[in-house]
Every structure is written in structure tokens, then in C-alpha cells.
């Protein structure tokens, strides 16, 4: 069975897996009457509430670094909602291989709607110990988090 879903007809957040997308309930495509397409998981009208499905967080870091390097960590937060402003508090956490957590923040987040973006920069000196470090950015009110792994070798 083939599912017809032109990009102009279906709006899907990038956080959902392709499995969830193709297993969504089907509705008739009323634009041309001949195809089927998955329903949108998130309401896309302006009256929809601002939930975590409308927010995108990206942590920009290299995958591998050397000990004692000084890194500039960049976090981008995007409010994709068409109408509502995003007000939140965010914190960057670095989780060391031994379980120690170092935090940066909290940052007061205020982002306009329609794809506006806020960028936050942090300076971090990489420890002398090799291993896998987890960098996590967490928004408190939205209960949204994003993680990246940094390998020190």
C-alpha cells in the first residue's frame, strides 16, 4: 500500500519517528479526493496550545575532542508555533563519565512565534579524563530535553 503525502498537505514535527508517522490513522485527502495521507499528530492551527511539539532544541558540539580543549557550546531553541510566545527557563547540563553533573543556567527563555530562534553560548574546558560526556539542555516548563554525546579521547 502506498501512502500519498505531498509536503504541502502534511505538516509533521521532526521529533516523531518515521514509524509513528506511517502508523498514524488515515484520513481522506479532501484536496484532490483520490489519495490517502496520515493525519497530523499536532494540531497546526493558530489556536493550538504551545506544547513541546512546537519547540526545537539543538546542541551544536563536535563529536570528538582532545582533553584540555576549550569549547564554545551553542544551543539553538526555535519556537515553531504560529501565534504563541515561548516563555521558559532552560539549563545546560554536562554529565561526566563518573556521574557528576555540572550545570549552566538557568537561562530565561523568551522567543517570538513563527520560527524565531534564540541562541545561547557556553564556554567549557574539556577535562583531562577521556570518556563519554552527555550534554543535555532542559526546558523546565515545557518538560523538553535534548541530549548530545561528546567523546573525549
Provide tags for this entry.
single chain, 153 residues, mainly beta, Immunoglobulin-like, 5-stranded mixed sheet, 3-stranded antiparallel sheet, elongated, disordered N terminus
Structure description:
The protein is mainly beta and 153 residues long. The chain has two domains: 41 residues, no CATH class; 101 residues, Macroglobulin (MG2) domain (Immunoglobulin-like). The chain has one helix and ten strands; from the N terminus they run αββββββββββ. Strands 4-10-9-6-7 form a five-stranded mixed beta sheet, with no helix packed on it. Strands 3-5-8 form a three-stranded antiparallel beta sheet, with no helix packed on it. The longest helix is centred in the N-terminal third of the chain and has 5 residues. The chain is elongated. The relative contact order is 0.20. The N terminus is likely disordered.
Approximate shape: elongated
Helix content: under 10%
**What is the CATH topology assignment of the largest domain?**
Immunoglobulin-like
How would you sum up the major sheet?
5 strands, mixed
What's the number of helices?
A: 1
Sketch the topology as an H/E string, one letter per element.
HEEEEEEEEEE
Q: What is the multimeric organization of the chains shown?
A: single chain
CATH architecture of the largest domain: Sandwich
Fourth-tier CATH superfamily name of the largest domain: Macroglobulin (MG2) domain
Amino acid at each position: 500500500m502506498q501512502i500519498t503525502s505531498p509536503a504541502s498537505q502534511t505538516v509533521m514535527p521532526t521529533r516523531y519517528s518515521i514509524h509513528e508517522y506511517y502508523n498514524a490513522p488515515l484520513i481522506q485527502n479532501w484536496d484532490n479526493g483520490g489519495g490517502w495521507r496520515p493525519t497530523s499528530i499536532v494540531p497546526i492551527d493558530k489556536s493550538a496550545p504551545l506544547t513541546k511539539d512546537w519547540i526545537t532544541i539543538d546542541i551544536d558540539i563536535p563529536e570528538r575532542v582532545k582533553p584540555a580543549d576549550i569549547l564554545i557550546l551553542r544551543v539553538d531553541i526555535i519556537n515553531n508555533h504560529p501565534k504563541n510566545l515561548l516563555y521558559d527557563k532552560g539549563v545546560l547540563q554536562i554529565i561526566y563519565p563518573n556521574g557528576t553533573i555540572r550545570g549552566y543556567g538557568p537561562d530565561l527563555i523568551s522567543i517570538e512565534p513563527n520560527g524565531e530562534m534564540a541562541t545561547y553560548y557556553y564556554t567549557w574546558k574539556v577535562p583531562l579524563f577521556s570518556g563519554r560526556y552527555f550534554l543535555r539542555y532542559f526546558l523546565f516548563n515545557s518538560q523538553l530535553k535534548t541530549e548530545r554525546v561528546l567523546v573525549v579521547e
